[in-house]
Design brief:
Layout: H1 4-10, H2 17-27, E1 33-34, H3 35-41, H4 48-61, E2 64-68, E3 74-78, E4 92-97, E5 103-110, E6 127-131, H5 134-141
Parallel strand pairs: 4-6
Antiparallel strand pairs: 1-3, 2-3, 4-5
Length: about 140
């Protein structure tokens, strides 16, 4: 895993304590986070506007990607590949556990090809599958 300063420099972002804190949070999570979860887990005095701007710039630069959820909100996840602003490559399935509500990127499970009628062009596709994650299944079986 690259160091916070190296990632920020790679994407042409100034290294600030707030950016490093947000990046550090995502580097130590194995699931996507909603805005309110990010806000709760950052134990710093970061105002909402600053956090929103950091998340927006991280998505625009290719550090984070967004995942829609059933509450019509967005979750954020770390891009595991090097993405560029013009091209986020996230052709993988996202899995949301109906028990713990965590959303996880399933990097090795590709979104199936969609055949559209003539005249339609796909700009991006996001697939969210719901079910029970291995951790919750283990707890339920014990």
């Amino acid at each position: 895993m690259k160091a916070d300063l190296e990632i920020l420099a790679t994407y042409g972002l100034r290294s600030t304590e707030q950016r490093k804190a947000v990046l550090h949070l995502f580097q130590h999570k194995d699931h996507a986070l909603a805005y309110n979860e990010i806000e709760q887990q950052l134990n710093e005095n970061m105002d909402r506007v600053t956090l929103y701007r950091i998340l927006k710039s991280f998505v625009e630069k290719g550090i984070l990607h967004t995942i829609p959820d059933e509450q019509q909100t967005v979750k954020y996840a770390l891009c595991l590949h090097t993405c560029v602003p013009q091209e986020h490559d996230h052709n993988h399935i996202h899995f949301t556990c109906t028990v713990c509500k965590r959303t996880t990127c399933l990097e090795h499970s590709s979104v199936p090809k969609v055949n559209l009628p003539a005249g339609y062009t796909i700009a991006s596709s996001k697939l969210v599958v719901q079910g029970v994650c291995p951790e919750c299944a283990t707890v339920a079986n014990n």
